[in-house]
Design a protein that fits this description.
5-stranded antiparallel beta sheet; 10 helices; 4-stranded antiparallel beta sheet; alpha+beta; rod-shaped
Length: about 400
């Protein structure tokens, strides 16, 4: 410590504490040699207490207010020091400022799950977390039991101990609640109140009380939560047989509404018919009376086949037709229409060789190949012998 700091310590006659940390519980006033001048001013603000310790013994406790430190204000300390000079010289004492306001927004949580025997689910593992608020109600007991000579005692120094204390009391509190684990959310306030009272009783020897205890959440392990979700889904569905029928009816209706190429009309009609039939079956299974059915009409002959669109074909670059498929077959047999001949029918985009039209493929399947060329003098096909014996 520099000379100026020593000199400034001798001149200062105001003893006070301005807390800027918001988490300090006890703070010791720093003075060189712990000397306090006669007629010094002690300022204790709201939410604070000042504790004087002399020769290792707790002497006096001051509440909020401003005090002039002299013999009449320190009867216990005066007796301990045994001054005979009217308290005219500096005296030695340690001054501890204790925060008596509520310390809020302190958090707690179960590091390991608490095992609870539930009447409905059996043995379950539960985790919990929340917040709490502490308040020092007996500064002297706090200094004797916890602080000692610590110059700055903070909330984190008691946090671990408090969390272990909470976990130790949480299991019995949940068991004494007498409710199922799934109903704990509705009883969290009652359980928190019981825990606050028990914790305050356990901390009373340290001069600390739990003013507010909040049980924010009690949760199950992930696998138990997943099983509970499945159970909830089954409860919402109700009768699984009826639900399956309903899902099947929706699937048929969706399939009937999807486009299916050339069979769109047929698919839509079939889907509507199947959907209506399934709806009637579903209504019967649910016990809903269906409308009376009209008597079935007598069976009649099938509808006449649709008339075939006429064909057109090209002969020596000129259009011929119209004609039927049977006409084209005759031209194929006579050789007037070949696979390469161009044909057209309503619905085709352009003239197409007959051999590439699937509807005419059967006309060329049984058509014999063209005859081979013959020799001019004898009329015998090329590559064959005219001698009968050669055969």
């Amino acid at each position: 410590m520099s000379f100026m700091e020593k000199l400034r310590g001798q001149l200062i006659d105001i003893v006070e504490f301005l807390d800027e940390s918001r988490d300090t519980i006890v703070w010791r006033f720093p003075r060189q040699g712990n000397e306090i001048k006669n007629q010094a001013k002690l300022v204790v603000r709201e939410g604070q207490s000042a504790v004087f310790v002399s020769e290792g013994r707790l002497a006096d406790v001051f509440g909020p207010g401003t005090y002039t430190l002299e013999t009449k204000n320190l009867p216990i300390l005066s007796t301990l020091q045994g001054w005979k000079h009217g308290f005219s010289s500096p005296f030695k004492a340690e001054v501890y400022f204790v925060t008596t306001r509520q310390l809020t927004d302190l958090t707690w949580g179960t590091q390991n799950p608490v095992i609870l025997r539930d009447p409905e689910l059996g043995a379950v593992r539960l985790r919990a977390f929340g917040t709490y608020a502490l308040q020092v109600v007996d500064p002297a007991a706090l200094l004797r039991q916890l602080v000692g000579t610590d110059p700055q005692f903070r909330t984190d120094e008691i946090g671990d101990y408090f969390r272990r204390l909470v976990v130790g009391q949480l299991g019995p509190a949940l068991a004494e609640a007498g409710v199922a684990a799934v109903d704990l959310a509705a009883n969290q306030g009652q359980i928190a109140t019981r825990l606050a009272g028990q914790l305050s009783e356990d901390l009373s020897e340290y001069g600390i009380a739990v003013r507010r205890f909040v049980l924010e959440n009690v949760s199950f392990p992930p696998e138990v939560e997943a099983a509970l979700d499945k159970r909830t889904q089954m409860a919402v569905v109700g009768n699984l047989d009826q639900y399956t029928r309903f899902q099947a009816a929706n699937a048929i209706e969706t399939a009937a509404g999807n486009p299916g190429g050339a069979g769109d009309g047929l698919g839509l009609g079939a889907g509507m018919g199947l959907g209506a039939a399934m709806g009637q079956q579903l209504a019967q299974s649910l016990g809903t009376p269906s409308a009376p059915q009209a008597p079935a009409a007598p069976a009649g002959p099938p509808p006449l086949p649709a008339a075939e669109s006429p064909w057109y074909w090209a002969v020596d670059g000129a259009q011929a037709g119209p004609g039927t498929t049977a006409d084209l077959a005759g031209h194929v047999r006579s050789g007037a229409l070949t696979r390469g001949s161009l044909v057209w029918q309503q619905g085709m985009n352009a003239w197409t060789p007959a051999g590439q039209v699937p509807a005419l493929a059967s006309l060329f399947a049984a058509t014999p190949p063209p005859l081979p060329p013959t020799d001019a003098p004898t009329g015998t096909p090329t590559g064959t012998s005219s001698d009968p014996a050669a055969g």
